[in-house]
Design a protein that fits this description.
Structural class: mainly alpha
Strand content: under 5%
Helix content: over 70%
Number of strands: 0
Distance between the termini: 21 Å
Length: about 60
């Protein structure tokens, strides 16, 4: 367990990982903008429906 922590501390981040993080943040920000004010059930369901592909893409990159 300690060795894994030491190896993870020396890990460098790739540019593509930083770009993907930024893209996910922008996507979630745009989704959240639809919930601003007084959202109804339709806006909430739209947010939920578009959150699933974003979550799936994030998990896919983290696993790979």
């Amino acid at each position: 367990m300690v060795e894994a922590a030491h190896q993870a501390a020396g890990r460098r981040v790739d540019w593509i990982e930083l770009f993907f993080d930024l893209a996910i943040v922008a996507f979630v920000t745009e989704l959240a903008a639809g919930l601003h004010g007084d959202p109804g059930p339709a806006q909430f369901l739209t947010f939920l429906a578009w959150s699933i592909p974003a979550w799936w893409a994030w998990i896919n990159v983290m696993v790979c």
